[in-house]
User: Fold Lactate dehydrogenase and related dehydrogenase from Polynucleobacter duraquae.
Amino acid sequence: MSNKPKILVSRAIFPDQLAQLEKSFEVRFNQADQVLTPVELQKELSSVVGALVTGSERIDASALLNVKDLKIVANIAVGYNNFDVPAMSAAAVMATNTPDVLTDTTADFGFALLMATARRISESEHWIRNGQWDKWSIVHNPLGMDLHHSTIGIIGMGRIGQGIAKRALGFGMKVIYHNRSRLSEANEKACGASYVSKEELLRTADHVVLVLPYTPQNHHTIGASEIALMKPTATLINIARGGIVDDAALAKALQSGKIFAAGLDVFEGEPQVHPELLKCNNIVLAPHIASATEKTRRAMVDLAVENLRAALDGKKPPSLINTEVFKA
Ligand code: 8YV
Assistant:
């Protein structure tokens, strides 16, 4: 029997990072690399002092029902809609996330997805693979939409939204945004961004990019009536969370040509994807990879481990969400 404190690591991390943890902790490690069932999660959390989880494990009152010594659950993600924070606070469990370290990588990906969607890069590849290139002409091509000098509308202007805005400036794009609260004048200037209402953004943007956190209030921020406001030539990019877009309504809009195309990194009920979306050609699909470079995923794990170690050493974790739980 080891006398090291016991922690849970809910999914595979890089082997050297795991080995480092194993020097200080007895690690309960989910080898299966599949999301733990609620029953498994409840059982695992009942016997550990800390846990590193991804955005897929729901940490709520039920998951915490039998905890005895649990001090911290550290999300390896910036979004923490998988946390019921009041329930965690009620159980005196610290909640942490991984902001900043993934901002640029995620903004890069948002822009890559936008470019791939507007310029129909996935469809073009299929075009070649399906032997359709023999029909090339000036008009006989997957014709796309321009990014340069178009208007990008960003909904959710946190760190990642601002990163996308700065990239858009390099393309000579006009940047408009909508957010819960307005940025400071200095921040608006740095992003070259103008604040508009959600309706105006949807009506005027050539490219709509979603980067807002998922909360009950943000459920289906984009549904049939919002899509109806968009230009038929517009693209919609979701790198935020599934559930922010009504995927069934989006599939209908893509199939009927109500908007030009969509790029999705996140889905309602992922890893399941709405079957009607899979039938659309004017879509670029990605399996939630916006933060997926080795450098950034390592940095996310490092920050989550830093949070975990701090909490277990009685120190304030650097990205503590429920500060009221920390007692110095
Ligand atoms: C993660 C993310 O890869 O940070 C987030 O909020 O969505 C991604 O960077 C994913 O949640 C796995 O933890």
Residues 54-55, 76-79, 102, 290-291 surround 2-keto-D-gluconic acid (CB under 6 Å).
